[in-house]
Amino acid sequence: MTPEKTNRLGTKTIQYAIILVLVIAIAGSATYAVMSDTSIHGLTVRFYNVSRYCTNSTTAVLTFSFNQVVVYSSTSLETSLSHVHFTMSADGILVGSTSAQDSKFGPGQSVSYSLTFSNASLDPHSQPLKSNIILGITALVGAGLYSSTTTASDSELVTFSGTPC
Fold first, then answer.
1. How many CA within 13 A on the CB side of residue 23?
2. pTM for the model
3. What domains appear along the chain, each with residue ranges and CATH number?
């Protein structure tokens, strides 16, 4: 091989190596961006152990208590929640809304909330034994490269033990 061919071969090898490194870097950052977006839009809320009662017998304000509300995301990036706001409805009627503390959870983790919603305009004596409960969360969700305001909800037909009052 002549020195010219060796120089061209070395130059081509370096060019191919640079192109390969750039392709790997672009693929890696694109994958991270997709994971960020999936973490944000994969926000999920689930509730367990909801009960209802009257705060006192005189005013008969109907109150719903959620012992455990779990919030998590579907992918494995650290996720932060800020400006957290929950709303709750029963049988299509808005019961109330409340703000909650900001939080953060890592890959495969979740965050739990205990929530209470009260409504003085609902008649506790006319509540059915089974109610379709919907709990929604709206939060500014940040994961990886991005953040976005996201909404998620959970619903369940809940059977209560009796009338709340």
1. 6
2. 0.78
3. 37-159 (2.60.40)
